Write the structure tokens for this entry.
Amino acid sequence: MKIHTIFSRVGVDELYFTSRTTVVIDVLRASTTILAALTNKAREIIPVDSFEFAIKVSGSAFSGQTLLGGERNSKKVDGFLLGNSPLEYSEEIVKGKSIILYTSNGSKAIVKARYSKNLFICSFNNIESIANRLVELNNDFTILCAGANKQFSLEDAVCAGNLILLMKQKSSLLKFSDASKAAMVLYGNYKKDIENMLRNACHGKELIDLGFEEDIRFASRINSCFTIPYFKKGVLKSLAI
């Protein structure tokens, strides 16, 4: 089994993912928010890669059963009920609902990887569950880091390194791309204090400045849930485990 890592969705063609197993990581915050919504019994998440498409999809959806969520430049989009904070996606609000999600990085990365044979969403919150599922599949897989504004993102790379090292502990028959090796080194440097790493990452600092400090704490929780978001036919649902 070989593990590939891509540090940004930019520069990789969507057809690259055809028939592959892919794990998308956007720690701050799409992956974490998707996990929160599905853990709190949202029916499904519909990721989209443009604001215009989000509006179009919502116009044809069942009124009252579909919510618009997401952000532009880390702030809730005008006219959307929800932003991109995992704390907004409580069971009271999302249970049984379909959520159309548009974000600056994460939803775009998911859409780019949509041709994958298997497509999972990972954050620190569910990292052990994702590792266990990948061991069961026993396929080569690619980690796609959403990045931030088309650039490298420290928190996504560190999370990728964490996932790879977990896989290394669970299987001795692994091969690693150079980027995967680099991700493991980064995780080794920051593993003692994940919350502090998130606080000091560029995007983490931006979120704190905007008043989303609680999101940093939430995103730093290791294995706080067992939810495995799985993409199929344009939507993300919780995979039965």
Notes: The two ends are 22 Å apart (CA to CA).
